[in-house]
Structures are given as structure tokens and as C-alpha cells.
Amino acid sequence: MGSWSLPRIVVAAQRGGAGKTLFTLALVRRLLQEGWRVAPFKKGPDYIDAGWLSRAAQRPCRNLDPFLMDREALLKVFRLGASGADLALIEGNRGLFDGVDLEGTCSTARLARLLEAPVILVLDCTKVTRTLAAVVRGFQVFDPEVSLAGVVLNRVARARHENIITRVIEHYTGVPVLGAVPRLRIPFPERHLGLVPWQEYGVEERLFETLEKALAGVDVDRIMEVARRVPPLEVPEEPLFLKGGWLSGIRIGVFRDEAFQFYYPENLEVLALAGAELVFIDALRQGRLPLVSALYLGGGFPETQAEALSENRSLMKDVREAAEAGLPLYAECGGILYLGRTLAWKGRAYPMCGVFPVDFEVRERPAGHGYTLVRVREPNPYYPQGLLLQGHEFHYSVPTRVDEGPQFVLEVERGYGFDGRRDGILYRRALGTYTHVHAASSPAWLEGWLRALESLEERKVWGKSLSLERGMAKNHLKI
User: 402-415: per-residue pLDDT in tens?
Assistant: First the structure.
């Protein structure tokens, strides 16, 4: 362990939907305009907020999740993400003390304590004044180990509204009010999984400009003073991942476009550090599958792009034939829908790749939402039997018809998966799972890629074959 000094701050709220994402985005952009190098982080397994923060900060936003990662791994991710930055800005999720159990395990508060970071509380001031002093007082005393350094008033109606709330909070609690944000007239884009990903929004720069203007009433200099008043943090000196050549010569096709964009940065980085060449594929516009040794299909919103995906028949044909040829395919959540037979969305069914003989439908209410625990029960090319994988899921899709043939290799111990009991549909070397796994949480994720590729008699490449290098190193990951 080594001592490391870095200004840092956590942005939290009394509940989800209070406006902390808007405020965090605005603050990131304002600090960038002033010349600060800001490292953004998102507490929890959220992809969409993290994507917006990445876009705003112009560097990868990394997820910090006490459920998925132990303390050492989390601190390594934090140090990796904050390398070269002047400030680490961590957006919480839901309410400050909300966790997975009675004790608030895995809450934003726990993360703030672990990082020894002060908290700024974003308060939704809609139709309330003096009562907010009681709310802030409750936050002060509920967990004295959490450093509540200030509050920001959000959605204030007018100057008189802001003045009353500021006076009562500072009088009764002593917590400084660091400014106020008015109720914005331009709504933030949202849909069934939360915010619309920035890749689909199209006018994010105009939105950022609106948010920056909304910070006119916030004392950013005082926020930076709070961020600087932190003790040195003891962090592991070892890297999160070790570099090696275990996947040397392997080209992994990664689907990344408006339909597929849910990838943890670390999952892609560890594949590259293992020697793989990542080849990004646009499933909407790219007509043929490039020269690749394996495919990685992340989550996203294939339902909103279903028509364009289904019209790209040549690419779907290549994917189906690659699966039949035994090419390793690893698909998470939205990637499964693309590999299915049909995808129904808003009353219309679209043909998909047909790798899995499954019809899917995206409905109005979530089927699976939250952390997952799945046990590997059946033989497969990726994971050893008996292994427990921890991850998360958030999907509105359900299978409406599953024909005989594919095997389910994962048993759900926590979560929903395909039907509350099963996850991990397998056909040849194509595995589709609703559970998203983080490489920093589970070394088995990279080991799974090694297993799948090493199990081939020859290292197959779409359209070509290369001889397989034997004896791939197993001690490739250091967490």
C-alpha cells in the first residue's frame, strides 16, 4: 500500500431522481472549462450515467461498486481511473444511505467512507422549504463517519425560495449551502432504462452548455476547497491487471454502436492487455463481419435500433455462420437479443441472427433489475462448473418462446436471468447471459476467454485459420 493525495468528492442525494446526474455533468464541464483534469466515477453498475460522464469529462468514467469489487480491487480501479487527474468526482446512486440490506451495505455512504471522501448532497427543493433543514440534520446524525461537507439546492423556484432554504439549513445544521440550481426548462432525455445514452441523443453539446449556465448560482471554488480538504488515501501500488501475451494474435470483434454500448472500460482494457486486438463493429452499418477470432456483444438498446439491425441481413448471416463454425461468441443482455431469432418491440417483431432459437420481447416493466449471483452448473467453454459469478442485470426483455436445443449452463441464485431459475444460454461456443460481469470483480471473466479460445483445436478466425499457441498463461490477472 502507498499513500496517495488527490482532491476528491462524492455527489449524493436524498433519493434517485433528485438531480445529481445533471449537477455532476454540469460540474464536470465547468471544471473542464477552467482547465481542471477531472476523473469521473459512477457508484454502482450503471452504464448510461457513466457514458454521459465519460462524454462530459472526455475520459473514461469507471464504476466503483462495493458489491462487485472487494476493497482492494475497488481502490485499484479508483487509482487507475484517477491517474493523471487533478480531481476525482464520484457520482453516487439512489439515496446516500441506500444499500442492499438493513445496514446499507454497498451504499454510496460506504463508498465515501472507503475513499475518505467528503459528500456534497444535492437536494430536490420542489414544494418544500424549512423541512429540508430536518432532512439535512438527519443526514448529519445518521452516520457520523460520513463527512457531509455541503449541500446544493436543486430545482429552486425563485430567489426567495432559495434564500429561505439556505438560511434554515445553515442556521439549524451548520452545513454550508454551496449554491442553487434552478428548475431546468429543457428536460433531460429519458426512457425505460433511465437516461437516453449520449450516443443516441445527438445534441449533447447543446445540453452541456445549458447545464453549465445552470451552475451560475453555485460556488464552484468552494466545492474545490472541499475536495482539497481530504487526507492522503492508502491505495495498493500493484496494477489492477498484469500485461501479457496470452491472447497474442487474437482479434476480438466488439459490437459498439447506438445499439450496443454497455461495456466496462476495464473489460476491454484487460483483453487488450492480454494481447488481443479489439476490432470494433458497427452492427447498423457494417455489411460484413471482419477478420476476427471471437466476438463480444455487450448490452445496450437493440430494441430501439431493431429495424436497422434486422435490415443488415448480410452481417447477421455472417454472425450466424461464425457461430455455426464454432467461433467463440460472448453476449451480455442486449447482445443476447441480437443473437436470438426474433425481437418484438412496440407491437412489431424483427428477425435477428437466429444463433439461439429464442424469441424475445421487450416489455414496459423490468423483468430483472439488480445484483445477481449465478452458479455454473453445466459444462461450457468459458467457466468451470461450480463457480459462483457475481454481477448485475437490468433488462425489460423476456424470452417468449425457447425451442429445444440450446443448453442453459447457469443457475440463478439471486436475480432473474431468463426466467428466475436459468441464465447462460449456450449453443456451441456462443454463450449469452443477462448477467453483466466486471473484469475487476471476477478474474474468471478473462480466464473464460482463455478457456474458450484454448479449447479450439486450432485458433479459428472468421475466414481464415491460425495455429493455436499452446500453454496460455493462467496467472494473467492480479487483483
Answer: 998 789 999 999 99
SS3 state of residue 73: helix
Homologous superfamily (CATH) of 251-466 is Class I glutamine amidotransferase (GATase) domain (3.40.50.880)
Phi and psi at residue 415, in whole multiples of 5°?
115, -160
pLDDT of residue 405: 75
Whether 359 contacts 400, CB under 8 Å: yes
Residues across the chain:
479
Name the one residue in this structure whose C-alpha cell is 445514452: 197
Which residues of the chain are modeled with pLDDT < 50?
192-193, 465-479
Helix (H) or strand (E) holding 276: none
In degrees rounded to 5, what are phi and psi of residue 402? Answer: -125, 110
Parts of the chain belonging to CATH 3.40.50.880: 251-466
Residue 353 a catalytic site member: no
Helix (H, G, I), strand (E, B) or coil at 309: helix
Was domain 2-235 assigned CATH 3.40.50.720?
Answer: no
Q: Is 72 helix (H, G, I), strand (E, B) or coil?
A: helix
- In the chain, helix, strand, coil percent, each to 5? 30, 30, 40
- Give alpha helix (H) positions in 38-126: 48-57, 71-82, 108-115
Spell out where 329-461 has E strands: 329-332, 342-345, 348-351, 358-362, 368-376, 388-395, 397-402, 407-414, 422-427, 430-433, 459-461
Q: Which long-range contacts (CB under 8 A, 24 or more apart) does 185-193 make?
A: 186/210, 188/21, 188/22, 192/364, 192/366, 192/396, 193/48, 193/301, 193/394, 193/396
- Dist. CA 440–CA 264, nearest whole Å: 10
Which one from 61, 106, 125, 333 is the annotated catalytic residue? Answer: 333
- With beta carbons less than 8 A apart as the criterion, state whether 22 and 155 touch: no
What is the distance of C-alpha 312 from the center of its chain? 28
C-alpha grid cell, residue 245 = 501475451
